[in-house]
Specification:
Helices cover 26% and strands 19% of the residues. It has 200 residues and is an alpha/beta fold. It has a 9-stranded mixed β-sheet with strand order 1-4-5-6-7-8-9-2-3.
């Protein structure tokens, strides 16, 4: 049996506020990079009592045992950056929270996972970013659907909160704004400004 570690920073950003985190993120089994956990290890992994966000592999291996806790709002699930959410589409409604792990801030795959959860799979509950989450990422993360952020433990969470308001306007359409700026901007179509491209 492999050692198991848990992550609980104590506070998260949720609803544009810093709040106490009621959830424990289950990390493990901890294995050397490139080594896969044995199926029996995952199936035997002890899930602590209380509100716990478990890895997808643990949910898949212990689904029947965790169903009752999920129905009571005590189980969430987190996706690694190399996992796709589609295989869990029929179970998503059972979770109180869904999280996406960023193993390092330069890994952008989590943005696509979040976007697909919101737009293709219809997830409307809490969508949390965990892992190597830094202030500079928060604005873009909220654009693709994240509404909760577990900021890296060595960073000031109150400073990171300001990152959600770094920009007052966005150009592209996304989860948070379905209409791009050029369609939101009022134009004086028909008024000759001398600009050959005016009104296009």
């Amino acid at each position: 049996m492999h050692d198991v570690s848990t992550q609980n920073a104590g506070q998260i950003i949720k609803g544009r506020s810093v709040v106490e985190d009621q959830w424990l993120v289950l990390r493990g089994p901890e294995l050397p990079e490139g080594v896969k956990a044995e199926a029996e290890d995952i199936a035997a992994l002890a899930v602590p009592t209380g509100k716990v966000i478990v890895p997808v592999a643990v949910w898949n291996a212990q689904r029947e045992a965790l169903l009752a806790r999920a129905e009571n709002g005590e189980i969430g699930v987190w996706f690694a950056s190399d996992e796709r959410p589609e295989p869990l589409k029929d179970d998503l409604a059972k979770f109180a929270v869904v999280a996406v792990d960023f193993p390092k801030f330069t890994d952008g795959r989590g943005y696509s996972i979040a976007y697909n959860l919101r737009t293709r799979l219809g997830w409307t509950g809490e969508l949390r970013a965990i892992g190597d989450v830094l202030r500079d990422q928060l604005f873009s993360m909220q654009r693709v659907g994240f509404d909760a952020f577990a900021v890296r433990a060595d960073r000031d969470i109150h400073d990171a909160l300001k990152g959600l308001s770094d920009f007052s306007e966005t150009y592209q359409a996304s989860v948070d704004q379905k209409v791009p700026l050029f369609r939101r901007h009022a134009r004086n179509v028909g008024v000759n400004t001398g600009d050959a491209g005016f009104g296009i």
